[in-house]
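[INFO] parsing input record for Aminotransferase class III-fold pyridoxal phosphate-dependent enzyme
[DEBUG] input buffer:
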Amino acid sequence: EDARARLAAAHPQSLARHRAAAAALPGGNTRAVLYYDPFPLTFTGGAGCRVTTLDGVEMVDLVSEYSAGLYGHSDPVIAAALKTAVDGGIALGAPNIVEARYAAALVDRFPGFERVRFCNSGTEANIMALSTARAVTGRGTIIAMAEGYHGGVLTFAHGGSELNLPFPFAFATYNDIAATRALIRERADDLAAVILEPMMGGGGCIPADREFLAMIREETRAAGALMILDEVMTSRLDYRGLHGAHGIAPDLLTMGKYLGGGASFGVFGGRAEIIDRFDPSRPGAFSHGGTFNNNVLSMSAGYAGFMNVLTEPAVAAMNDTGERLREGIAAALDRHGLAACVTGRGSLMNIHFVPGPITTPAPLDAADPRHLSLLHAELLLAGFHIAPRGMIALSLPFGDGDAAEFLAALDTILADHARHL
Ligand code: PLP
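[DEBUG] output buffer:
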């Protein structure tokens, strides 16, 4: 409470903006995930891995737009690509050159993409993948992971949302090989697909065991169902995507986030035999619309970053920085004797106020939400922006020096509050 009050006192202009915005925007913003009590801070700008609040306070950004801000806030290659696109004319309403180049580059880099289709968000990519799976199999049921997140209308945390799409879902326990195998076999007759992330992102940065992924690959094939991997968040964890690192070949694969270079973006794809059914020159082709699917801003920013900035060494360096940061956080939690842990892989991680190791989401419910709330507020006061749920996503400009500053601040906060945590 005290930390929240100090935060409000330090950000009067954010508070005023929040109150004024609420007249037209319920809750003062358009994204549920960005809200926290008593009001979320407003950011007015950013450079590198730093952002500036409306009250002029600079912060190190460890949210990185929930992983979509991989390039940081001022990458010159992205800026130049956007300028070139704007100068060349936008909203062209025809196939363009960049979309074809980008499609070829994605197919070249990610083994799970033999063919791709662009869309506007990760949510849309997953809706398209699920609908495609139902259409090609002629079946209805979808198995998803309890506590998984695949988009605004595909959210399965805490029992799901009333706004979820009415697909007939059944839920499996992440990383539970025996129970999930049994569920797939039980539903085999009507099973269209199993959808999961190779690391649960929103579900708490819980990596899948390779054996769990391999079992799903094998069982879906045996059941005549499709395996859909959602790599909207995780594709950054390896140059070839996390499915590439694990050597798992899904039937359908979705990505998004950073691949738009900071602009809105989604892509779904997979085996040629399936995605070729979207070829509109074929009789009976699946129809796929979307005014902005190939918009030149997303295509240009995404392609430029992907080809010129996100090189193999850059991906490795970003994820290595993340591994070191996660080790540093784990050491700090240990040093202060807290019943807490940090999960994740590479540049994506999550602090949890429950003892580790965590391999499935259910034990996370035991955490006292006041602990994360306190840590989040104290970190904001110290100039570090992490997600209210304890998640951290790094950007390319974030270096070991930034990590050292963060770990020093974390250590001080944990020392000050150890008796409350
Ligand atoms: N899938 C996963 C795994 C995600 O983390 C997200 C976004 O957080 C989505 C899908 C939805 O993507 P978007 O927000 O672009 O609709």
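[INFO] The radius of gyration is 21 Å.
[INFO] shutting down worker
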